[in-house]
């Protein structure tokens, strides 16, 4: 009985062209527009690349030269070209390097020459400042306590190892990804309209189909569960297809934990369905108003997760952090973000756990409302 009703509900969902458009085609189109709008910006301005720099020294400053070599070979932070000063000026003018490290022939001091002041130039300046501070410190130690040179060098080396080991993640910190995470979350929450349809087909005073089901004499819960399972299945497939399209067609790196991404999509889909189902069984408001309420909740939730305004979730976290703990779209998008950013799964399962609590609360509330319904004509 269950599987037969489940199969019929799946077929019915496949014939619903309006739901197919909004829950599958619309997110794909929106994702494509996002990529066309700021995908190029993310590639050019946000994603870090090795910084090209020229090193001009008539007499090489050995310590600084070794530092540049280590930064190029070990960390991949910079790409060094050792050239004559005039050649370095030409490369800077043509935009082939971001800056010039020049060793003054008279004093041996290292200076940085840049054509503009942006992020990469700030990084190059930070390298030089750190080197100058370390050099000054070693000079002071050598003058006041020569025996402490070796201990100071060991401390500096230990600090470098600590900073390297303390890296949070190897993932790309691309802030524009928030929009795509929120887009996946919105796709999940679009299932609210499907949950509303299930509720309408279950309430005998809402649709003729629901009235016939109520008069059939069969278990009402036995007819409800296959419908819910079918809508959850279809919404999960819509979301999974959207994730695959964003990843393989648009080349967006949503992460490598495919199993956990699909688990997030399933959890978000169930949450979306249960939001719509709860609204559908609560009260005797007209279907049109309930549908508007579902769409409104989905849009507002997506807005606060950062879909329409980049960084909105961080603003909410600063001023109203409790909202991020219960906002469905934020929980889904933050779970996906955690998978791609953090090395441990603690933040991910924390988001998924809160989403599961919302599902249980909405589901329990909906079924309590359903059990209390009685129809005199049945």
How many helical stretches? 16
Order of helices and strands: HHEHEHEEHHHHHHHHHHHH
How many beta-strand segments? 4
Distance between the termini: 22 Å
Q: How large a portion of the residues is in β-strands, by DSSP E?
A: 5-15%
Describe the largest sheet: 4 strands, mixed
* Global structural class: mainly alpha
Detail the poorly predicted runs: 159-169
Percent helix among the residues?
Answer: over 70%
Spatially, the strands of the biggest sheet line up as 2-1-3-4
Keywords:
378 residues; 5% strand; 4-stranded mixed β-sheet; single chain; mainly alpha
What does this 3D model show about the protein?
The structure is a single chain. The protein is mainly alpha-helical and 378 residues long. 71% of the residues lie in helices and 5% in strands. Strands 2-1-3-4 form a four-stranded mixed β-sheet, with helices on both faces. Helix 11 packs parallel to helix 16 (346-371).
Quick structural gist:
With 378 residues, the protein is mostly helical.
